[in-house]
Amino acid sequence: MTPTSGISKLIDLAIYSASAIGFLSSLVLCIFGILAFPQPLSGWAASLSLKLMFLLIPIGFAFVLRYNNLNYDRTQREITKTMYSGCPIWMRTTAYCLMHWG
Q1: Sign of CA dihedral 65, 71, 73, 76
Q2: Fewer C-beta within 10 Å: the chain N or C terminus?
């Protein structure tokens, strides 16, 4: 599977779509959890949060496989040097701060 093949683009689209849907769902659940703060999540919110947690594993697995496929013939040093090439300094700093905080 080459990085520019049609199936690869579909896989990328599926990974990014699932990630966007998961991010938006997590944002909605976070807001809902803040509004219902003293009580734990229940009903549809609790079941949705459990489903999102279980979907993290296959989506993350697909993401890692695709990342490894795109970087198969590159060294770790090349990957590190080009990771944030073209990004503004504030974006690079923010990304490193978030990685450090996480």
Answers
A1: negative
A2: C
